[in-house]
């Protein structure tokens, strides 16, 4: 098992994660039907997003919360979806990596998912 320490590591992690996501019966449809994700654009954004979070590279410029509001408007993003997202993310990390950055990738994802889930829930009440 290796440490999560380079852009190549992040690429492997993100690619493995989304190959699980697209096959997943609980959240796969968000990426194939609700949004027809352009993977050539989305994957590099996700590499930069995680590189910025884990290595402080600041290569990601975007607003992850804002991207999810229109998705949530067309199909509610509920707790069960966030739970599945997180369990696939954690599973992918623990299959490939260990160490401080691997733990940080888990903690950060839990915090962001919690906030995102809350915001999506609030947006549906307005
Ligand atoms: C139920 C859970 C989630 C679903 C269904 C979901 C779905 C999506 C979809 C479909 C896109 C692509 C939008 C597009 O191509 O236009 C996207 C983008 C993105 N998601 Fe999620 N997401 C979820 C949770 C999360 C979480 C927990 C995080 C962060 C830890 C996250 C971070 C991002 C980022 C950074 C982008 C790219 C934003 C950009 O284009 O700048 N997502 N998400």
TrEMBL record:
<keyword id="KW-0813">Transport</keyword>
<keyword id="KW-0349">Heme</keyword>
<dbReference type="InterPro" id="IPR009050">
    <property type="entry name" value="Globin-like_sf"/>
</dbReference>
<keyword id="KW-0408">Iron</keyword>
<protein>
    <submittedName>
        <fullName>Group III truncated hemoglobin</fullName>
    </submittedName>
</protein>
<dbReference type="InterPro" id="IPR001486">
    <property type="entry name" value="Hemoglobin_trunc"/>
</dbReference>
<dbReference type="InterPro" id="IPR012292">
    <property type="entry name" value="Globin/Proto"/>
</dbReference>
<dbReference type="Pfam" id="PF01152">
    <property type="entry name" value="Bac_globin"/>
</dbReference>
<keyword id="KW-0479">Metal-binding</keyword>
């Amino acid at each position: 098992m290796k440490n999560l320490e380079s852009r190549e590591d992040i690429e492997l992690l993100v690619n493995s994660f989304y190959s699980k996501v697209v096959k997943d019966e609980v959240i796969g449809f968000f990426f194939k039907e609700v949004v027809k994700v352009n993977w050539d654009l989305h994957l590099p954004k996700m590499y930069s997003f995680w590189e910025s979070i884990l290595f402080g590279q600041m290569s990601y410029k975007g607003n992850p919360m804002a991207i999810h509001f229109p998705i949530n408007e067309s199909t509610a993003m509920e707790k069960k979806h966030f739970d599945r997202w997180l369990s696939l993310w954690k599973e992918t990390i623990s299959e490939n990596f260990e160490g401080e950055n691997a733990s940080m990738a888990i903690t950060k994802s839990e915090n962001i998912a919690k906030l995102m889930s809350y915001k999506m829930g609030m947006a549906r009440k307005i």
